[in-house]
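Help! Submission page says 'invalid entity' but I think these are all valid:
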Amino acid sequence: MNAMVPLPIVLPIVGAALSLLAWRRQRIQRAITAVALVAALGSAVTVLASVVADEAPIAVRIGGSAPVIGIVLVADRLSALLLVVAVAMLAVVLVYAVGQRTPDERSRAYHPAYLVLTAGVAGAFLAGDLFHLFVAVEVLLIASYVLLMLEGSNAQVRAGTTYVVINILESMLLLAAIGLVFAATGTVSMALLPERIAALDTGVRWGLNGMLFVAFGLKAAVFPLFSWLPDSYPTAPSPVTAVFAGLLTKIGVYALVRTETLLFPGEQEVLLLVVAALTMVVGVLGALAQGDMKRILSFHIVSQIGYMVLGIGIGTPAALAATVFFIVHQIPVKTSLFLVEGIVERETGTSRLAEVGGLLHRSGWLAVLFGLSALSLAGLPPLSGFVGKLGIVEAAASDGQWVMLAIALAVSLLTLVSMVKIWVGLFWGEVMPVPSADRARGLLRRTPVMAGATIVAVGFGVAIAVVSGPLYRLCADIGAELLDPSAYIRAVTG
Amino acid sequence: MSLTLVVLCGVLVSAGVYLLLHRSLTRIVLGVGMLGNAVNVLLFATGGKNGSAPILRPDGTIEPPVSDPLPQALILTAIVIGFALISFLCALAWRSWTLDGNDIVEDDVEDRRLAQAGPIDPASTPRERP
């Protein structure tokens, strides 16, 4: 079983190398990416099944060296669960990108960069020490720079520059924070840190926590560090934006969960709650002001991050369980919303709401796909977003956070308003002129691969609602495990 | 921790931040280089006394006068990553220069459009074209 843990990192990296060798053979590149992703998904599912069955984290010492000096990969229930969802979404979006038949996916750098991104995502979830987490985040960031600017067009270079510079600054900050953590404690291993950090002075602890919070908060796009996100994501090709929206900010949230539960448990509750409230409110207000579907959805990424930070801030096992469930729900839902947007953009050539309309008459099924994801995002029962938000609201109520509860509910309502705005803009109104008669109907039938991938992504979101009972029980176990890191520490040091 | 390293680190950070705040990508590249080296110096300073060798004892423990080898391994990785970032930024600056003849980072078009649109008119519907 231990051999399975590094596979989600190793397989995509090897695939990326092979993909570079097949530089001129598009079909071979596609086959390599597909095989690597499916194999990575298979190993991730095996690891998840194993950690759920054993109820104990698996720690793998790379090279067999001691955890103080060697690299340790740790798969507990949280990282294995997120890994499975993330790699599944990466596989779905790959199918979509191939079906899109755009110059982006035909770019020879697409497949290698996509696999490197996968390896980075897997590495970040499995990292057992802060420095390895930093390296994994760097790996996925460099791949994301390439994917964001595949065309090298003027708009992409302009938006990409902001993204690259902000993320480099974040990397420097994170590295400096890790250096200072090392200076204070003499280790970067996440299993040894809790005990040694607890022994530090309050001032030193707060300083370290603050630096790590700013670095990971930039990655997660919390208020006030989010302005790079709605600026850069919309210029990327739709399948790339879908992956970024679904996964990249969630890595930041995952790192925040680890920092605030394992390293600095319950230390900055007020800061986290204030940041969460502002992130939710500013994100959703930003979305309401926009007139472009991609930008509305990008602001919603920010807004939903607020809910996750709220759960971390409340910090009870129930709140953490709801946060984990909410992350798991957000990854497919956000991805599928951007996939629907990609189909719209391919059909109409734009994502500006003022320039499209009447799509309901051309494809009722597209409306269904959008509607399911949008209502789930807004948190309407019986969809998965409802379960996640209910959990967070319940946790806020039982912790007595009535102000946060009111803000969360109000933001949820505003989310619904802006989803209705997209609905009205896309599906209602006068039917836009169609280039030729045969394009009038059967919008999804003409792009079967893209439609199929979108249906799978939306189905994934719906499936989370269907299995929400057992899944929520798993999340509750994860929430309890996060607050009692003794099993995690035992797995690494024992 | 030696005072020289601390001062060097501070100077590099301030110069790096100053350069990062410019709009020209070439200066941003230089700023990133300085910040990266500042962080490397910081990592180095955490390792122990200057001049001692980063070698583990045979039983795996670390004892003065030997420095801790871990920060040096971290710096090595950080240098490689920093090199990749700087080469990517250089390529980006070059691409920007081939596209429009300079390497100045421009404003977001959508932001400018929203700012010019003025206050939102409640009477207008989303159907209206700009």
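Support: the input was valid. A stray whitespace character was the problem, and the output above is from the cleaned input. The longest helix of chain B spans residues 69-100.
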